[in-house]
Design brief:
It contains eleven helices and 17 strands. With 454 residues, it is an alpha/beta fold. It folds into two domains: 113 residues, no CATH class; 320 residues, Peptidase S8/S53 domain (Rossmann fold). Strand 16 and strand 17 form a beta hairpin.
């Protein structure tokens, strides 16, 4: 059993400050090229979406009000108009709450005295080849066939829809050895970013160290190892964004997620894969209740509900609380206009661990399901394994959304989400266990293509 170790770095408190407005900014809605990439602007134009006030950066004059008081700003969310400030001095943090441009302040992080050790998983010796019993001779999909074929993804691949030209952001907690594993050698990596700012004092700067949860998730979409394992979107472009702190579980991780989502939007991402969810935090500070699952109460859910209106499809895991006391989905799986993904096994039966709906306001959740019980994937050591969780059913969907959207480029994010729901196995009678059911991406493509010709 692991013992306790001292939490690294000095004592730290972090507050989230909600600002009244964005007055005093130099940016305008008619010049989005100053704060959004051309790809992001083109994505909006293609879907007939307008840049709005949430897209405007928080004015530097607003931030200076914090800095002149000696505040260390850890991050901001322009969509939520919030500022994160960290300090060991709670008197300062409380004083900042009295600033005239601050509407509300909440404590979102307090460094613990100790945590369960060890602090992190360093890079290990990797397996540079697969065992012969891992391969399925003469089958390019290898052990991935069941999980891809269940969704009709193999049919999309047969007509060369592998996600080319689409960009996927993976929001997760760690991508151990992604830079070293052969199955990712062909991956089109656009970039990486670490949003876990409280980790600055002890992070060794190695993005590809740490835990391997994100490695597993990524492999379901991006791995290329013919006859062993194939991802659902091997030709897509990828951004790897770390926004989960593996050392603690506190509300600040909602802020990290929001910042990562906004970054993904700004660089022109089309799809976000998020295998993260929150309802209970360390010391029960900031816990959510079932009544809070309305798509907006949680900052992370409010942010997620904005994504489709920016032209992005979010695929988020439903959660794995189905057999626990909570049972329900976790934030941001309750968000509006996203694809919340539950889990089934290889026999297409519900995985009992998968969280269920509905949302507080009565919306069906999960939206759809995919194989999350015995999903074939690659670990951080390079081993082919089977793992369980809605974390791993979700990237199956994200990758195939990329393939579908590649084939139906004129559709908007909302239209893609609706099409996937409509082409699922129980679309006529959705429930709060399997949602609209198991999607058929080939049917979605054929229907979408027919509509496009009308």
């Amino acid at each position: 059993m692991e013992g306790k170790v001292k939490y690294p770095g000095p004592k730290l408190f972090v507050y989230r400050y909600y600002l009244n407005d964005k007055k005093g900014g130099k940016h305008t809605l008619d010049r989005p090229g100053k704060y959004l990439s051309q790809k992001s602007i083109e994505r909006r134009k293609r879907q007939k979406l307008k840049v709005d006030s949430t897209d405007l950066p928080i004015p530097e004059s607003q931030l200076m009000r914090f800095r002149v008081k000696g505040a260390r700003i850890l991050g901001v969310s322009k969509w939520n108009n919030t500022v994160l400030v960290g300090s060991a001095d709670t008197t300062l943090l409380n004083l900042l709450a009295q600033l005239p441009n601050v509407r509300e302040a909440r404590k979102v992080f307090q460094s613990p005295d100790s945590i369960n050790g060890p602090l992190s998983q360093q890079k290990r010796i990797i397996q540079d080849h697969f065992n012969r019993w891992d391969s399925v001779r003469n089958d390019p999909l290898g052990v991935s066939r069941t999980q891809i074929e269940m969704l009709g993804g193999n049919r999309l691949h047969e007509i060369e829809l592998y996600g080319k030209g689409m960009t996927i952001a993976v929001l997760d907690g760690g991508f151990q050895n992604v830079d070293r594993l052969g199955c990712f050698s062909q991956m089109k990596l656009k970039g990486t970013h670490n949003f876990v700012s409280v980790a600055e004092d002890y992070d060794d700067g190695d993005f590809f160290g740490g835990i391997d949860h994100g490695t597993k998730v990524l492999s379901v979409m991006a791995a290329v190892a013919p006859e062993v394992i194939m991802g659902t979107a091997p030709d897509a472009d990828y951004w790897l964004l770390r926004c989960e702190d593996p050392l603690t579980e506190m509300p600040i991780e909602e802020d990290y997620w929001a910042m990562a989502a906004e970054f993904a939007d700004s660089v022109g991402v089309d799809i976000i894969n998020s295998s993260l969810g929150y309802n209970e935090f360390d010391n029960n500070e900031g816990n959510y209740h079932l009544r809070d699952l309305d798509g907006h109460k949680a900052l992370i859910s409010h942010t997620a509900s904005m994504l489709s209106h920016k032209g992005i499809v979010l695929c988020n895991s439903a959660g794995n609380s189905g057999m626990g006391h909570w049972k329900k989905i976790t934030a941001p799986a309750d968000a509006e206009d996203i694809i919340t993904v539950g889990a089934v096994n290889s026999e297409m039966r519900n995985a009992p661990f998968a969280s269920v709906g509905p949302t507080q306001d009565g919306r069906i959740k999960p939206d759809i399901v995919a194989m999350g019980s015995g999903t074939a994937l690659i670990s951080g050591r390079g081993s082919l394994i089977r793992d369980m969780g809605t974390s791993f059913s979700t990237p199956l969907i994200s990758g195939l959304v990329a393939c579908l959207w590649q084939g139906l480029p004129k559709l908007s994010a909302i239209e893609i989400i609706d099409l996937v729901r409509q082409c699922s196995s129980q679309a006529d009678e959705p429930d709060n266990i399997l949602g609209y059911g198991i999607p058929d991406f080939w049917q979605a493509y054929m229907i979408g293509r027919t509509k496009g010709e009308e």
